[in-house]
Specification:
Blueprint lengths: L3 E4 L2 E4 L10 H5 L2 E9 L2 E2 L2 H15 L7 H14 L5 E8 L17 E8 L2 H10 L1 E7 L14 H12 L4 E5 L5 E4 L3 E5 L5 E3 L10 H12 L4 E3 L4 H5 L3 E6 L3 E8 L2 E2 L7 H9 L8
Parallel strand pairs: 7-8, 7-14, 11-12
Antiparallel strand pairs: 1-2, 1-6, 3-4, 3-5, 5-6, 8-9, 10-11, 10-13, 13-14, 14-15
Bound molecules: 4'-deoxy-4'-aminopyridoxal-5'-phosphate (PMP).
EC number: 2.6.1.42
Catalytic activity: L-valine + 2-oxoglutarate = 3-methyl-2-oxobutanoate + L-glutamate; L-leucine + 2-oxoglutarate = 4-methyl-2-oxopentanoate + L-glutamate; L-isoleucine + 2-oxoglutarate = (S)-3-methyl-2-oxopentanoate + L-glutamate
Family: Belongs to the class-IV pyridoxal-phosphate-dependent aminotransferase family.
Length: 285
């Protein structure tokens, strides 16, 4: 079965799906995106992802490409046409196609919309979570507006590549103040030796992760103590547990940071529990 992508009003075979070379997403990374987990063929926490999309668009003054109910239909359709039961759906909206000039197009252009979906291997992901992942720290070198989920991801690409080349799976950015901001594609968490879960509060230094927000509700319900504050790599090395969150990984335990073992080198009990309980608290659309 060939994979299908939605591109500006059409469902196309993925291998033939393309955008105009003058698309501002292509030329300037002038666009935003969202990634939703798909489970049982349904979209996880979709309304929250759409709310964040609207905010990203507003911040960059890109107009909404279509009414949100229509977008929901497209996203479900792409999931269905690709027969994805467990995986991801990706949505990208750019400012549109215009003659290359840094400033916004002088006349309004239609934003470009692309939606793709792909299956993930559930067993493989569960195995990765059972083993835990390794993280390396890298200097924070992104622009200050990482609260906007923009497709300008070059620093994230380089950080992730550096992690891979060092045998790790994720990179954690460390700001000039010495505190961890977040991962290249995830939010960063630790658990203190007395069982408090710590993550940085939402400011312009991190993306307000949807998984992060839902997980806080899970922790509230399970009466797990939360501390929203920054932490340093040194504190993380000595933590009882560490983990990352994102729509594609949900809660992914971290077992080593910069080559130092976290806890006993196995995924921690709180991270495992949060991973197991997460979907009881998420909304399915
Ligand atoms: N921070 C960054 C930089 C990310 O790319 C992601 C993944 N989109 C996250 C955090 C986690 O966000 P979410 O839980 O909404 O996937």
């Amino acid at each position: 079965m060939s994979r299908i992508a939605y591109v500006n009003g059409r469902y196309r075979e993925l291998r033939n799906a393309s955008v105009n070379v003058q698309d501002r997403g292509y030329q300037f990374a002038d666009g935003v995106y969202e990634v939703c987990e798909v489970r049982g063929g349904r979209l996880v926490d979709y309304p929250r992802h759409m709310a964040r999309l609207q905010r990203s668009l507003r911040e960059l003054r890109i107009s909404e490409p279509m009414p949100l109910p229509a977008l929901a239909i497209v996203m479900h359709e792409v999931v269905w046409r690709n027969r994805v039961t467990y995986g991801l759906v990706y949505l990208q909206v750019t400012r549109g196609v215009a003659r290359r000039d840094h400033a916004f197009p002088p006349h309004p252009v239609k934003p470009s919309v692309v939606v793709t979906a792909r299956a993930l291997n559930y067993e493989k992901n569960q195995q990765t979570a059972a083993n835990g992942i390794k993280v390396v720290t890298v200097p924070e070198n992104r622009w200050p507006r990482v609260d906007i989920k923009s497709v300008s991801l070059l620093p994230n690409v380089l950080a992730k590549q550096e992690a891979r080349e060092k045998g790790a799976y994720e990179a954690w950015y460390v700001g000039s103040d010495g505190f961890v901001t977040e991962g290249a594609s995830s939010n960063a968490w630790i658990v203190t030796t007395d069982g408090r879960v710590v993550t940085r509060s939402v400011d312009h230094g991190i993306l307000a992760g949807i998984t992060r927000a839902v997980l806080m509700e899970v922790m509230d319900a399970l009466q797990i103590r939360l501390e929203e504050r920054p932490f340093t790599p040194a504190e993380a090395y000595e933590a009882a547990e560490a983990f990352v969150t994102s729509a594609s990984q949900i809660v992914m335990p971290v077992v080593a940071i910069d080559g130092r073992t976290v806890g006993n080198g196995q995924p921690g009990g709180i991270a495992r529990r949060l991973r197991e309980e997460f979907h009881r608290f998420s909304a399915f659309s």
